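FAQ

Q: What does a record look like?
A: Structure on top, sequence underneath. For example:
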């Protein structure tokens, strides 16, 4: 027991008690790890203690601890690096391309888009994004319009709505000058990690704004994807409407292989 107490102190975690609702022990461990990550104990890109240290701190078997870590790796919260350890997953261009960006050329060419900032403004939220973000209509938000180019061609118009209270200090300059993806900006400068997203897609006619940004005739057929980006605890942090010119591009969702 003395060994467990010492390891608990070094890992920073207390022993795990069985869940009163009967949840499997590894899920209780997983929740504790998530709370620590969400609370900033381990910053994005930082390293977790070893599995042996964590297991001893929680007073669970290494197998139980590993099961919890496996699920967090599958959910892109953690990433294992052979011979180096387990790290808090950092949003970067590769993660954006393969987890959150689903548009590719009809011949299968997939690349990171060039993003052009078209508009940035502070405004009051409309009913649709308010509902998606759990806000009341009229609350303050930041609204961003981006044009995304693939192979030098304007293919996507993104309109992002962000709760102003979550992104205090976000300016047009900070957004325009970010060194990596917008989700990297959320994570590293605002402590908001997008873990997954809920999307709905439908065919629509391009409105005047999307037609102008994409260089299409008003009313041209396009695909529209409504995305709510979620952080820990499935809290909504961004509402995005993407209008896609599918003349030469397709929406392709990469699905994980079944376990």
């Amino acid at each position: 027991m003395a060994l467990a107490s010492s390891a608990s102190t070094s890992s920073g975690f207390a022993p795990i008690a069985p869940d009163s609702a009967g949840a499997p022990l590894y899920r209780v461990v997983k929740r504790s790890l998530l709370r620590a990550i969400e609370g900033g104990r381990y910053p994005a890109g930082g390293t977790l203690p070893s599995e042996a240290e964590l297991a001893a701190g929680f007073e669970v078997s290494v197998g139980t601890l590993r099961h919890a870590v496996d699920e967090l790796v599958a959910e892109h919260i953690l990433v294992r690096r052979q011979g180096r350890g387990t790290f808090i997953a950092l949003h970067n261009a590769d993660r954006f391309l393969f987890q959150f960006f689903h548009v590719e050329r009809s011949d299968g060419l997939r690349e990171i888009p060039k993003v052009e900032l078209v508009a940035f403004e502070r405004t009051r939220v409309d009913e649709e994004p308010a509902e998606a973000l759990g806000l009341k209509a009229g609350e303050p938000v930041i609204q961003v319009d981006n044009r995304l180019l693939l192979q030098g061609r304007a293919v996507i118009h993104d309109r992002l709505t962000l709760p102003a209270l979550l992104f205090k200090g976000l300016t047009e300059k900070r957004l325009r000058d970010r060194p990596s993806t917008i989700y990297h900006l959320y994570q590293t400068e605002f402590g908001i990690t997008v873990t997954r997203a809920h999307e709905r897609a439908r065919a629509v006619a391009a409105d005047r704004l999307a037609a102008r940004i994409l260089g299409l005739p008003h009313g041209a057929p396009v695909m529209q994807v409504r995305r709510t980006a979620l952080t820990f605890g499935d809290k909504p942090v961004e509402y995005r409407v993407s209008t896609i010119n599918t003349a030469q591009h397709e929406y392709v969702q990469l699905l994980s292989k079944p376990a």
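Q: Is there anything notable about this one?
A: DSSP finds nine helices and ten strands in the chain.
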